[in-house]
Amino acid sequence: MRARDRQLFLHEERIARMRAALAALVLLLASTASAHHEGKYHYCGAGPSDGIEFCPWEWSLGLGAAAQRAAGSWGWALGVDLALGRKMPGWFGGGGRVERIAERTAGAVYLEAGILLYLNLGGGLSLRFGDATRFGPHIFLGFPIPIPPTSGWLKETRFFIEPYYRPAFLFDGAGEHTVFHEFGLLFKIWSRRTHYED
Predict the structure, then answer these.
(1) Could you tell me the pTM of the whole model?
(2) N or C: lower Cβ tally within 10 Å for the chain?
């Protein structure tokens, strides 16, 4: 096998392993969320008819700014993040951002899933485009800090600030990978449609 063919084979094998690992992560998170019924952050009430448990969807919308480092260069990113959950603590979502690093501007989109306990833990897949197209897995680690509950017409909503770290392991078309380190801060609006014990 020629060196280039072997390199492409190893690249495809790595991508297949990453996809399998991501699928296993999503299944684990989904099963954890489905098994979680009542706890500090969750309450399921009676559904439309007797005997049916009803857990309404919750959503969070975040706006964020981040510092990035890749291949020895620093840059910045501005983005938006959306997450959905039904039986907390499991959630899934995605987002997009504009990045500027090494005097080059690029865009990125991502899908991810995770578990919100005391820390926000998750992972997913990222696609970066602009100067070059790169694709690969990422990890998400956040620490949500609640802002005191509001009253009046905002009583069903909570606000958070969330410092986070998201490393992404992105591969280009030739199989070469670059690690993008993202250190950011999200301002999040969380629809509080279930009951919480404060």
Answers:
(1) 0.70
(2) C
145-157 pLDDT per residue, tens: 888 765 555 555 6
pLDDT in tens, 78-88: 999 999 887 66
Three-state secondary-structure class, residue 159: strand
Q: Residue 133 above 60 pLDDT?
A: yes
Of 127, 156, 41, 137, whose CA–CA distance to 91 is shortest? 41
Q: Which two tokens stand for residue 60?
A: 């969070």
Residue 140 within a domain: yes
Residue 97 and residue 77 in contact, taking contact as beta carbons nearer than 8 Å: yes
β-strand pairing of 90-101 with 120-129: unpaired
> Where does the pLDDT of residue 196 fall: very low under 50, low under 70, confident under 90, or very high at 90 and above?
very low
Residue 158, domain extent:
54-191
CATH code of the domain covering residue 64: 2.40.160.20
> Is residue 175 a part of any domain in this protein?
yes
Distance separating alpha carbons of residues 180 and 21, to the nearest angstrom = 20
Q: What is the dihedral of CA 63, 130, 132, 79, to 10 degrees?
A: 0
List the structure tokens of 55: 């857990």
**Looking at the 3D structure of the chain, how many domains does it have?**
1
Q: Could you tell me if residue 30 is inside a domain?
A: no
Q: Is residue 145 part of a domain?
A: yes
Please state, for a pLDDT cut of 90, what percent of the chain lies above it. Answer: 41
Burial (Cβ within 10 Å: 0-12, 13-18, ≥19) of residue 2: exposed
Classify residue 35 by its DSSP letter. H
